[in-house]
Design goal:
With 392 residues, the protein is of the alpha/beta class. The chain has 15 helices and 13 strands. The radius of gyration is 19 Å and the shape is globular.
């Protein structure tokens, strides 16, 4: 269905479990899910608020034990991986309570040492959807096999990756319940491509979204939605993704600018101020995960930018061996520590992941309640905001 008019009503997003023992279907009135911003930006307050307004609230499930222990003084008696599981189970239960048992998703990184344990914990805790990226989640169907009503979706950045995931999962009699496409040219955080591939301009969203949609349709999975992420800020962007073949969108950066983001950690005021103040393009910086990361330009991120030929690694200790790909002795810095520093509002030492829109001129940028932001995503920006942004 073509979408050309900003006043067009957004269709719902329908998610269905393709587990052979499940008939579970979830319909989201607003076809918007949030990206799971780690290591604690997307907590229960934000995820539950999005779900209450008709979207799909998705928690971050990345290494939560570390900020829980460092900033919240919880689970202090547990070892790191046990604390990660306990914190994730806590947050799923809290979110379910805040949204009256409605939809709760979890976003996980395949590159985590304890990815399988966290995925199992999420499924056992009654999560509705697991979205997995930072690597291809080949093993996820087996990990959650005992939980047929838990839906699963890989994050892909190319049609090739979509093809690999579809073939691998269908070969195990467990097709994906959605495909989340993240644009390596627009999305925040870790990117599913090398710096050379990103700089070459490969994997443009208008191409990959359509290719992924055709791949699913040709395989008979017309009911598996493509959820597009990266570069989505307002309703006009949502409609653009739909024209390219998506059935839903995943948004992260704009949800940082809500009252509910990071509420569990004091509201992450500096985090939000960095987004509001930033007038320069986001940068690609080196990450111990072995992937390029897109972030707000700050004193810390500029030190590790790909454009900085004089990059010098930072002396550090490894608190919990969180990443499979991280060389503990020779890694350039501790990403878990600097993401937690961002939660603690340290502009000097925090790592503030963000999508490309954060430094883009002409966009409405203000802190809003989730309720108001979801209203704008459904019906469009107020005319006064559009005029003000155009003059910025």
């Amino acid at each position: 269905m073509p979408f050309t008019d900003i006043n067009e009503e957004l269709p719902p997003l329908v998610l269905r479990s393709h587990h052979p023992d499940s008939t579970r279907t979830v319909t989201l009135k607003v076809p918007v899910v949030n990206g799971g911003m780690g290591v604690g930006v997307t907590g229960p307050a934000l995820a539950a608020a999005i779900t209450r307004e008709g979207g799909g609230g998705v928690l971050t499930g990345v290494a939560l034990g570390y900020p829980f222990q460092k900033l919240l003084n919880r689970h202090l008696d547990l070892k790191p991986f046990e604390a990660n599981k306990a914190a994730l189970a806590d947050w799923i239960a809290e979110t379910k309570a805040l949204c009256d048992g409605q939809f709760v998703g979890v976003n996980l990184m395949v590159a985590l040492e304890d990815f399988k344990e966290l995925a199992y914990t999420a499924a056992k805790s009654g999560v509705d959807l697991i979205v997995a990226g930072a690597g291809l989640p080949m093993s996820l169907p087996e990990v959650v096999e005992k939980f047929p009503d838990v839906m699963i979706a890989p994050i892909i950045s190319s049609a090739k990756a979509a093809r690999v995931m579809l073939r691998r999962w269908t070969g195990r009699n467990r097709p994906p319940d959605a495909m989340v496409f993240e644009s390596v040219h627009h999305s925040g955080g870790h990117q599913g491509a090398s710096i050379e591939e990103i700089q070459s301009g490969e994997y443009q969203p208008e191409e990959v979204i359509g290719q992924t949609r055709k791949l699913l349709d040709d395989a008979g999975f017309t009911d598996v939605p493509v959820i597009a992420a990266g570069g989505v800020w307002d309703k006009a962007d949502i409609l653009k993704m739909f024209r390219w073949g998506a059935q839903g969108v995943q948004m992260a950066s704009r949800f940082v600018l809500t009252d509910e983001a990071g509420a569990e950690f004091g509201g992450i005021r500096q985090f939000k101020q960095n987004y509001l103040d930033n007038r320069t393009p986001t940068i690609l910086e080196r990450s111990p995960a072995g992937l390029p990361g897109r972030a707000v330009s700050t004193p810390f991120s500029k030190r590790f930018a790909y454009s900085n030929a004089d990059m010098v690694k930072e002396p550090h200790e490894c608190p919990s061996a969180c990443l499979v790909s991280c060389d503990k002795k020779n890694s350039i810095y501790c990403i878990l520590d600097h993401l937690t520093q961002a939660l603690a509002d340290s502009k000097e030492h925090g790592l503030f992941f963000a999508g490309s829109n954060v430094g883009k001129p002409g966009l409405s940028k203000e802190i809003l309640p989730v309720k108001e932001l979801m209203r704008r995503l459904r019906f469009g920006e107020p005319q006064s905001d559009i005029q003000a942004a155009a003059g910025a």
